[in-house]
Model the fold of this input.
Amino acid sequence: MIYQELIHLDMEVQSVEEYFNKMAEKLVLLGYVENSFLEAVKTREKKFPTALPIKPFSVAIPHTDPLHIKKPFIAATRLRSPVKWKEMGNNEIEQDVKFVFMLGLHREDDHIKLLQLLIDNFQREDLMDRFSNAETKEEYMKLILSIDGLEDDLGMKII
Done:
């Protein structure tokens, strides 16, 4: 589920829309999602925004329904500059998101487990500092793999 080809460091985007367009294009090209994914993830994000107010930079965890996913994945992105992203549970507030962990899972209950696990871990300031300072995809991948409970709770496949 965790693939190095889906790790992006210092991606340059100006908006959530641009991020979704870039990621969906890559995910379709690599065979992870259906062509319907882009519209589905945008629609879900408008209804249920996913930015978490983590300091110093917020994290977004966008996802959509399993029917748009061909191959389960976690796509991890560190943006070069934060973008304004609507806060989870409060459409009125925007967060400056620097980290995006896009999820593509086949079972809805896996989304819920993984979201809670990520939220718990992203509150660790030491982990977020290391995500900020990682210099290579390999280093970033190791940090993802160090997330407490990732292997135990969900039996993630790592490639």
Remarks:
- The radius of gyration is 14 Å.
- The chain has a mean pLDDT of 90.
- The first helix runs from residue 16 to 29.
